């Protein structure tokens, strides 16, 4: 046998075989390892800026930690204080109240808006882009404008109410008034965004269904209820979950509505849990306690998300 | 620099809308967190950490010229709200705080609870400088046993009482500032004047809102407020607190308050439209009044002395963290910057009102007048106010307790609580906040 034949049959010398095995290891590593390398940037960044702060917040929440530094591990004391803290429950009530006031009208409004935009109307592109304008407006600008609108002495809203001989309302002073004002800010800002999501979902619905329904004698309202809404359900669930998460973290609007007062009014009537966290951490510099609030917000948001998903699934079972 | 962040009540975090809007832009200007002190080839670099505007640029140049071998690096953070968390990080991490750090009053009283993070300036012969500072300013940075000094005073938010001359004229009151000041030797007299003005139906309230007034009255009530020197909460037993509260409630009852939230649109507009006749104004507020009232109202606003004896809202200090590698040189620099000459220079640069009696008496400060306010001798008015204030001990949790009481006063103004209920709520909130 010649050397050539040896090699052709893959028998080779010992050295050759080793070399080939090494190359095989490399290519195996390349095959199985490199994909991890390619996706690594995201995970490394997520670990550094997402996971680590999350874990560290939990650690800090178990400590007594203020402006002068770490004063030692105190276990769950921050949490037990928190559960007995009326200001926290008050903030939670405000957050949930604002969540309802800001999410329900917003999503209903978005649904109606999307249905209108899904029809052949004049200047369609103009209107479709127009509903996005609030989203690209800076929150600070929104808050300044709404702050003027809801001004006690010279506000436009009180001016309008005056025409009907109502008021003047001190929007900041009462719980109801401040909730309405803050919720209107959130609604104004996000209705258009959700409408576009619904619109995109609506456009993927086959026209045939509507034609068939028309032949069966269903009017526009019936078509909307029986075809449009069920078929865009994934989009509905998505927006509900996103709005809930946004609502749980509501911060800037109520903060700026109160001229930057993190206690959210004289009786904390519009202080959200995010504001309460900020107050404890960065006004009172009680980092341990503030971190405990942050962890609880995280858990509550997870719970709200899960509840949404479960309800969404139950609704699916109901309609189909 | 000192208190613009805390306009309504000292220490209350009020982020003005504009401030928040630009916060994002300036957040990036924090600068590197690297070790401040470094020495190469015999040159020592001292890093000075400040917030807002301390007006030290010329002083640095001057100091470097007179101290060969010293280089100064300033790292400034525009907003106090961004600066404080960073400061905490530097102190906790044990590096990054540089050699000289600026401490706002509210932060200083908290840090006094754990003074070991800062060099004892008495070890660097600062003791001889005591007469350079107002007594209360000196004492604020001195531990209660008097053995450790952690900071040297920079500026103070010396305060006067600003008033609308046109409204005073309409109500038949004197408009000339000395005579206006003579109207209210005490807060009772201020109340009486307020009743006269509101009775004249000028359409304006007597003052903007009660929080700042209460704070002003409280600081004149003796040497403690909410805490005694052992940091025991005495808010319910200190007669001074109750007196300041009752005095403020009496003014609300008399209908003198405009019930305007500080920084709200109607508060801002009030300066121009004259919806309130007086407002307690620290030195830094003069610029805000001028901006809000506009050039058309030049001369309508004037400034007089405050009722009672003196008033100050906030102020700052310079300290040397123990993590500094050149504490001796850093302490020398801090002494230089807070010297009477240094403070006078900072006043000239950025109108930061000095805490040094010698600087207050210097021609540059005491001769300062403000054109917009009818050429009021503001240097003299604010100087007298700062000098006549007696030392008050605050305690590390002063701010949260003050916030609880301030909120209760606002609730009375808004008609949400009766004074009695508000007082009970303030006390229970204060106890909870201090016990946390």
From TrEMBL, chain B:
Protein name in the entry: Extracellular solute-binding protein
Keywords: Signal
Pfam families reported in the protein's UniProt record: SBP_bac_8
UniProt entry tagged with the keyword Signal: yes
Keyword Signal: yes
Top-level lineage group: Bacteria
Entry-linked InterPro entries: Bact_solute-bd_prot1, SBP
Lineage, highest ranks first: Bacteria, Bacillati, Actinomycetota, Actinomycetes, Propionibacteriales
Leader sequence residues: 1-21
